Automatic annotation (TrEMBL):
One example GO MF annotation: carboxy-lyase activity
InterPro entries cross-referenced by the UniProt entry: ACMSD, Amidohydro-rel, Metal_Hydrolase
Keywords: Hydrolase, Lyase
Keyword Acyltransferase applies: no
Species for this entry: Seohaeicola zhoushanensis
Pfam family, one: Amidohydro_2
Domain Amidohydrolase-related: from-to ranges: 10-291
Protein known as: 4-hydroxyphenyl-beta-ketoacyl-CoA hydrolase
Domain of life, source organism: Bacteria
Transmembrane parts of this sequence: none
Amino acid sequence: MIDFDKIVAIDIHTHAEEPCCGHRDDGYDEFQAGMAKYFKNPAGAQGMLPSVQETAAYYRERNIAAVIFPVDAERETGFRRYSNEEVAQICAENDDILIPFASVDPWKGKAGIREIRRLVRDFGVQGFKFHPTMQGFWPNEHQFFPIYDAIQEEGKIALFHTGQTGVGSGMRGGMGMKLKYSNPMALDDVAAEFPDLKIILAHPSFPWQEEALAVCQHKPNVYIDLSGWSPKYFPEILVKYANSLLKKKMLFGSDWPAITPDRWLADFEQAGFRDEVKQLILKDNARRLLGV
Ligand SMILES: [Zn+2]
């Protein structure tokens, strides 16, 4: 078990990037290379992304707990997914430091709902990651509501990518990815329809930062994670809200391995956050949200 009093922070947003099944799908390496270029992450460019086991060791060394998840976008990308069960299993073996989330492509419908319930009940999964752009869906369409219903009933968290993305960035046609789906305003509908579903809007939501702040301010069940960007580049209004109105709703996240917590935390110190707010963002808000 994680000793939440002893750890220094909770990173709410890290990725399990291992490709599935031994050999990689066509285009998977190019996709990862595009991401690496966007984030200026040399490990990704060389196909040297860390395994979940290596991620656990890295975080353990720093005494930081980490939420980790794969992304299932099989329908939209054609890339076979990394098994949720396998990720959860490695998390269980490293339960002093890792917190398992999972990802189920929302287009899987009833089979997806069955999987969500099984992952919560049999594998201790604490939340689910969605990526509207990479999964190619409007999160506020009714056909996806039964999925949120299941997550809400299980009392778990739904984390949504918002704003621009490294996925497909600079590739021909952006790899077919459409940015519009990641407008956080679509999640205002979800937060209204599912008032007991805990929702995280991931990342500064450029070019819809103010939309994200409005949704988070208006809906008690919505949080914002600050992953995917160095705090050096945070818009002023985001820091302003984090320091005041939304100080209990903001969460530390890195987006490992795209951005390392070392870099994020160093830049966070310089980004104008008030001292009493830093502790809330780094740990206390996540504890409340996770119920630990
Ligand atoms: Zn991410």
